[in-house]
Every structure is written in structure tokens, then in C-alpha cells.
UniProtKB/TrEMBL annotation:
Belongs to the anti-sigma-factor antagonist family. Residues 1-109 form the STAS domain. InterPro entries: Anti-sigma_ant, STAS_dom, STAS_dom_sf. This is Anti-sigma factor antagonist. It comes from Hymenobacter rubripertinctus. Coiled coil: none annotated. CDD domains: STAS_anti-anti-sigma_factors (cd07043). GO terms for molecular function: anti-sigma factor antagonist activity.
């Protein structure tokens, strides 16, 4: 798993590349746990190159949801491959998290 970051004044985009499993979820958790992340108004997660997500990877996002909501930070996923999106749907996470098809929609969300 490779995580690339792009940031503007108010938005942080995380580009996930590879498989988000138990071992790589620690890397993601470390990124999302940094105090400066809460200075953003939005965290956009580009899932175009995310090939797989395990329950551990999902758990990282779920564990940070309340913190982001409390800080008024919007978490938005976009460019999600169908097989990854299906995992979110099956677990009902698509109703808890914002998932949109494109980067333009993510920025507008």
C-alpha cells in the first residue's frame, strides 16, 4: 500500500494505491491520527488504485469518523472500484460515509 498526499489550504487528498489490509492499515491509521489533519475542512480519499480493502482497513476509517465529525471535517471517498464499493455497500457503510464517483463531485461535496 502506498499513500500519497496532496493538500490545499482546506482540503487533504489521500491517494490510496494497492491493498488496504491489516498490515497497511497501520500506515493509514498513523496518517489519519496526526493532529494537523483536523485543520482541513475536507479529507478526500481517492480510491482509483485501491484494489482491496479488508475489515482492518475499513475499521481505520470507522474509528476516525466521530473525530472528523466532531471537528467538522468532511470525509469523502471517490473513484472507488466496483469491488471495493461493494464491500462498503454490503456492510452498510455507504450510508455512513460519503462516496461519490469523481474528484469533481468529491470537491463539491
Amino acid at each position: 500500500m502506498k499513500i500519497t498526499q496532496n493538500s490545499t489550504d482546506t482540503t487533504l487528498t489521500l491517494i490510496l494505491d494497492g491493498e488496504l489490509d491489516a498490515s497497511s492499515s497501520v500506515l493509514l491509521d498513523n496518517e489519519l491520527s496526526k493532529p494537523e489533519i483536523l485543520r482541513n475542512q475536507k479529507i478526500l480519499v481517492d480510491c482509483r488504485q485501491l484494489n482491496y480493502i479488508s475489515s482492518a482497513g475499513l475499521g481505520v476509517f470507522i474509528s476516525h469518523l466521530q473525530t472528523f465529525q466532531d471537528a467538522n471535517v468532511k470525509l469523502v471517498f471517490f473513484n472507488m472500484q466496483e469491488k471495493v464499493h461493494n464491500v462498503f455497500e454490503i456492510l452498510g457503510l455507504d450510508s455512513l460515509m460519503t462516496i461519490v464517483p469523481s474528484s469533481a463531485e468529491a470537491e463539491a461535496a
